[in-house]
Design brief:
CATH topology of one domain: Endonuclease III, domain 1
CATH class of one domain: Mainly Alpha
Strand order of the largest sheet: 5-9-8-7-6
CATH architecture of one domain: Orthogonal Bundle
Structural class: alpha+beta
Number of helices: 23
Largest sheet: 5 strands, antiparallel
Oligomer: single chain
C-alpha cells in the first residue's frame, strides 16, 4: 500500500482539484510552498514536504508561491477528523479572537488547559496558534491589497494588525516584498460599488440557486433581500452599521461586498459570510457518504451538493426559529417582519429598497411586549427568554462555544424544545452532526407516511454521522423553519 505522503504526491503530480486546500506542498530546493493544483513543474518527490495548513508551511520557513497563491485556496473543512475543542479554537481564531486576546484567554474560553490546547492545535494543524492567527491576518491583508483600493493603513487595521509597521513587517516576511509592490492594477468598475468587494473561495460544486431558494422565503422584510441572484442584508458589527451583498461570480468563487464604516474586524465579517453560505463544506465527501442510504439517495436525486445555510447572527436565527414554531415558513416571515417593524431600528442611510431596518437586539426584546405582533403568550415568553439569555451572555451563540452545552442551555429556556435547539446548532453553531430527531417531517418521510418513532430515527441516523445535519437538509428539501 502507498504511504500517505506517496498518495499526496500522486495528487500533486496530477494537479487534482479535489485536493485543493486539503494540503500544501513545500519544496525544499526553492523554499516555496504551494497548492496541489499549481501549474509549476512538479518537484522531485525527495524535495517535497507535505503540510496540512499554510500556517504550518510558513512556520517551517517556506514562503507562498506567487503563481498559485496559496492564500486564495478554498478553506479546508477543519472540523472533520479533529477534536471539537480544536475546531472551536480555529473558529475563534478566524473570528479574530487572538487579535484582541491571547492564548491563555482562548484556552479559558474553551474550558481546557493552555498546554493541552497548544499541543492539540500543533498536532492537528502543524503550527502553533499564534502562527495560525498571524497567517490568517497576513493572508487576508494580501487579499485586500490585491482586490481593493483601500489605503494601506486601513488594510492594516481592518486585517487585525495593531499597527501599520507590524502589517508591513508581516507582509515582507511572508511574501518577500512590501505591500506597495504587491498591489496589482485593478480594472475600473463600470458601475462604482460602495464598500469592499472580496472573492470567497469554496470547494465545488455549490448549488447557489438552491441556497437562495432556501433563504428567499425566509428573508426578514426590511433586513434581508434576495433578488436577481444576490443576497443582501443589513448588518450590525461591533458599533458599526452597514450592509453586505453576496453573489456568485464563477464555479469556485462568490463575491461579497461589505459596506461598513472603516474599522477593525473585517476578517470576522468575512468569516460570518462564509458560515452563512456554508462555504467550508466539502460536498465531495458529504454527498457520497449520504448516498449509501437508499432513502437519502432518493432524497438527493441528481444533486451533487448539500449545504446547511447558516446565519449572520445567532440571536436573530434563534428568534426566527421560535417564531417558526407551529407555523408555516410564510407565516414565520410575516411575524419576523412585524417584529422588525415594531421593535427594530430604522436606517436613515438605507442602501436600497428592502434594506431599511436593523433586526432588534437582545436588549430591544428582553422586556418587549412581543404579543403585539400576533404571537401567543407562551411564544412571546420564549422570545423574551432567548433575548434575556443572550443579553446576559453575549457569547451564547459564539462559534467557539461547546455545542452540547449550548444546546442544554437553550433547552432549559421556557418554550425552547429539542427541535429549536438542534436547529440552532445546525445553522448557528455549525455542528455538522446536529440532528432534530423529533422533527415530524423527517420521521414521516423516512417512515413512508407512517412516522418513525424518534428512537427509530436516531438509530437509523447513526449511519449518517458525522453529517446528520446535511442528511436532514437533504430530506427536508428546503422546507423547515
Amino acid at each position: 500500500m502507498a504511504s500517505p505522503d506517496e498518495r499526496l504526491y500522486r495528487a500533486l503530480a496530477s494537479r487534482d482539484a479535489r485536493f485543493d486546500g486539503r494540503f500544501f506542498a513545500c519544496v525544499r530546493t526553492t523554499g516555496v510552498y504551494g497548492r496541489p493544483i499549481c501549474s509549476a513543474r512538479t518537484p522531485k518527490r525527495e524535495n517535497v514536504l507535505f503540510v496540512p495548513t499554510a500556517a504550518a508551511a510558513e512556520a517551517a520557513g517556506f514562503r507562498p508561491c506567487r503563481r498559485c497563491r496559496p492564500e486564495t485556496a478554498p478553506g479546508s473543512p477543519a472540523w472533520v477528523g479533529t477534536p471539537g475543542v480544536v475546531s472551536r479554537a480555529l473558529r475563534l481564531v478566524e473570528a479574530g479572537f487572538l487579535d484582541r486576546g491571547d492564548v491563555p484567554g482562548l484556552a479559558e474560553r474553551l474550558g481546557v488547559g493552555e498546554r493541552q490546547l497548544r499541543r492539540l492545535v500543533r498536532q492537528h494543524f502543524g503550527a502553533p496558534l499564534l502562527a495560525i492567527a498571524q497567517a490568517h491576518r497576513v493572508h487576508f491583508a494580501r487579499r485586500l491589497v490585491d482586490e481593493t483600493d483601500l489605503p494601506m493603513s486601513e488594510i492594516a487595521f481592518a486585517s487585525g494588525f495593531g499597527s501599520v509597521r507590524g502589517f508591513d513587517q508581516a507582509v515582507r516576511k511572508t511574501f518577500g516584498r512590501p505591500p506597495s509592490e504587491l498591489r496589482r492594477r485593478r480594472r475600473a468598475q463600470a458601475v462604482p460599488v460602495p464598500g469592499v468587494t472580496l472573492r470567497l473561495a469554496y470547494r465545488p460544486p455549490l448549488d447557489w440557486d438552491r441556497l437562495l431558494a432556501f433563504l428567499a422565503p425566509r428573508a426578514t422584510p426590511g433586513v434581508e433581500v434576495v433578488a436577481r441572484g444576490v443576497y443582501g442584508r443589513t448588518i450590525r458589527f461591533q458599533d458599526r452599521i452597514g450592509t453586505i451583498a453576496v453573489r456568485r461570480v464563477d464555479g469556485r468563487h462568490l463575491a461579497a461586498t461589505v459596506d461598513l464604516p472603516p474599522g477593525p474586524g473585517l476578517p470576522a465579517v468575512v468569516e460570518r459570510i462564509r458560515r452563512t453560505f456554508d462555504l467550508g463544506a466539502d460536498p465531495l465527501a458529504i454527498v457520497p457518504h449520504l448516498r449509501r442510504d437508499p432513502a437519502l439517495r432518493a432524497a438527493l436525486g441528481t444533486r451533487r451538493d448539500v449545504r446547511v445555510p447558516g446565519a449572520w447572527d445567532g440571536f436573530e436565527l434563534a428568534v426566527r426559529a421560535v417564531l417558526g414554531q407551529q407555523v408555516t415558513v410564510r407565516g414565520a416571515t410575516t411575524l419576523a417582519g412585524r417584529l422588525v417593524e415594531r421593535f427594530g431600528r430604522s436606517r436613515d442611510d438605507a442602501a436600497g429598497p428592502g434594506l431599511d431596518r436593523l433586526f432588534p437586539t437582545p436588549v430591544d426584546l428582553a422586556e418587549a411586549p412581543v404579543e403585539t405582533i400576533g404571537v401567543p403568550g407562551a411564544r412571546a415568553d420564549a422570545l423574551r427568554a432567548v433575548a434575556r439569555a443572550t443579553r446576559d451572555d453575549a457569547d451564547l451563540f459564539d462559534p467557539g462555544r461547546d455545542v452540547a452545552r449550548t444546546v442544554r442551555r437553550l433547552r432549559a429556556l421556557p418554550g425552547i424544545g429539542d427541535w429549536t435547539a438542534q436547529y440552532v446548532a445546525m445553522r448557528v453553531l455549525r455542528d455538522s452532526d446536529a440532528f432534530p430527531a423529533g422533527d415530524l417531517a423527517l420521521r414521516r418521510i423516512l417512515g413512508n407516511g407512517a412516522p418513525l418513532r424518534e428512537r427509530e430515527l436516531l438509530a437509523r441516523a447513526e449511519a449518517w454521522r458525522p453529517w446528520r445535519s446535511y442528511a436532514a437538509m437533504a430530506i427536508w428539501g428546503g422546507e423547515p423553519g
